[in-house]
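FORM 7B - TANDEM STRUCTURE REPORT

SECTION 1: FIRST PROTEIN
SEQUENCE AND TOKENS:
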Amino acid sequence: LIYRMSTQQSFLHPLSKFEKRIAYANAFRSDFQVPTDTAAFLSSLSAYPHRIDRTYKEEFVATIVHTESHDWRKVDTGFPEASMEHDILTMSTKLDSLGWTKVFVDVRERIPMPSVALPGVRRRNSRSEIEQFVTDRHESGAFNDSGILIESRELVALMNPSERLHFPLGHTVMVANSKSEWFAKVNEQGKPVMDMLASELVEDMLRLEYLEDEDMC
């Protein structure tokens, strides 16, 4: 069912009609319910380009990337051998071709549980790896007029490793799950993430309403 929903016209065509598509994904192994690669439909085999957006100010945002829309019906899905990896690549590429904004969130410090350091695993923290990637791309001249580009498979390598082992409550924290008093207390640090999403949705609706009013004038 997941494969069908990610590849068939009956599902992708309605999704393509939205003015904007946004996906929020927990980074750095903090979410066992919806892991990073699933939430952002990444593939370790995909070279699909994502444009890095550096305009955000929120400290809990690890990075924001955008994919440009293309004709998802022309995505090549023919592979000599069927495999799970090729299925994931097909789903990832078809979804990416619709055009998305992907927000990678770092809620590790907002999880109200102790974490464990993993000594010797990484020489610098996960956020520094992202900054170093951007710096290296700038210095190498590997960018164009649209900005710095990063491939889906490169995001897999950057958005998953963590220098600490955290209790994987990232999903409930990110969505500020408050279905009970206890949940509300545990997940209250996720409210700024949802505030950011809500603000962006309202801004987009007001922008579209303004554009519609201009068209009618």
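SECTION 2: SECOND PROTEIN
SEQUENCE AND TOKENS:
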Amino acid sequence: DDKEDEEDDPAKPNDYDEFCRRRMQQKAEEEMERRRQDALNRQQQQQQAAAKAAEPKEDDFATRMLKKMGWKEGTGLGKEGQGMQNPLVMKKTDRAAGVIAEGQGKRDAPQPAAGQPTAKQPKPGEKAAAAPTRPPTKVLLLNNLVGAGEVDEDLEGETAEEASKYGKLKRCVVKEIKGVPDSEAVRIFLEYETVESATKALVDMNGRYFGGRVVKARFFDEQRFASGDLEKRDGLE
């Protein structure tokens, strides 16, 4: 009897009490580990989100073309790097007008002065592209997008991608000719599915600034294009 009373003495711990203590300790450790893992997962998600936000965005058409011509981000556009550090882009204000502004970069884009018209403005000493006089067709001719010797294997595809923003494009053809001024040396033809799409492209592209050039866009004779007559013909353009 004395031995049985000794084993049941509540003042002394037994195996069950030890089991409960260890069980509570295990649960506390598991909870701490779960909280640690949750905190670690949140930290990883935040790091991934920050890394994704910091990923460079795909260059737009103008930036890709300028890089092909040797321009590097953070450098000026001039021969000695003295010009602006971002390509000019067109910001539309309505269907037939827009403003020229420096692309997004380290500096804020310039704003037009108060009272200044929002139509496309030529550079000092440079005339704006002439307004088209030919009746609308499904084919556009672009001049002065690039100069002589600047045609590469990507120009056609990149121009077609940009031109497709105005409607369904059937064909883009790039032709370089010799014996003409640099501004007319590279002729880029855009054939659209409809006259409406070609007109939209002309309104936006004619007079557009690109790498220090003023792009000239005009309608081109559909029969000449279909027959492959892409050379410059005085009196026909």
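SECTION 3: OBSERVATIONS ON SECOND PROTEIN
The chain has six helices and eight strands.
The radius of gyration is 34 Å.

SECTION 4: SIGNATURE
Preparer initials: ____
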